[in-house]
Amino acid sequence: MTTPAARHLRLIAPSGYCNNQVAARRGIDYFRHLGVKVSGEEVINRRFQRFAGSDGQRLADWQYLQDCTQLPDIVLAVRGGYGATRLLPALNFPALAARLRHQPVALCGHSDFTAVQMALLSQSGIISFSGPMLVGNFGAEHLSEFTLSHFWHALTSPALQIEWQTSARQLDLSGTLWGGNLAMLASLVGTPWLPTIENGILVIEDVNEHPFRTERMLLQLADSGILARQVAIIVGNFSGSKLTEYDNGYDFDSVWALISERTGLPIITGLPFGHDRDTVTLPLGACAHLQVKETHCSLTLSGHPTLR
């Protein structure tokens, strides 16, 4: 595993209340065992209704990044859930951009955190990392070496390469990698928080979404003109749904086939990315080169912030 280069990690909780305090403590212990300073622990105990604090308290997490004397190396989301979209109209994106451009900071999370990541990319061009979070990943009882290795490799590699097996046809193309949780992307359609990416390579993942809901969200992206601006779609993990006899053979492969037929886009499956135990870490907004030869896929990424 790549040796961590981080000295200071700041916890942030823009979404749901941390209902697994034990896992959160395990995650903090993981980083401290590596010699990383962890701050912002108070956010894991914070609670207002189902959220990790009031809107004002959760906005203050971002205000800290604008005002602190020394920026952390990593800003890590505690967990997902719901709540990030409530904050978007009040976030000071110009101030965040002005501050974060002076020092590379790895903003990392997924799921509901996708809303903030897309808004940062849309409003300020800030690249962030879609990857593991404190509770579900670093706080797991049995850590995934795959996830840890890919996390540290992504945060320390100016030229990042990820490889996996796929059934997609041969291709060779370049574009801007963006996306994340599909439900969050669909929820941002028609808002100023969804970036307009030309020649994009859209990467998607989700959990507990049936194939028909997944198809409906992708059709929303297609009918909104968003997929027409892409050059490819990379499919990560879509887990947690159960098919029944009523589906009669309708599954995720059926979804990918329909979307590819409707849009003409190549769809590359098989990337271990998302809510599952094993996940890669991807810089959203990075320059990407995607190659498929036979059953081998290679994604090369550059232009993202790396730890000093």
Automatic annotation (TrEMBL):
Protease among keywords: yes
Domain LD-carboxypeptidase C-terminal: 174-290
GO molecular function terms attached to this record: carboxypeptidase activity; serine-type peptidase activity
GO process annotations (BP): proteolysis
Active-site residues, Swiss-Prot/TrEMBL: S111, E205, H275
A Pfam family of this chain: Peptidase_S66C
Domain of life of the native organism: Bacteria
NCBIfam families for the chain: PRK11253.1
Protein name, as recorded: Muramoyltetrapeptide carboxypeptidase
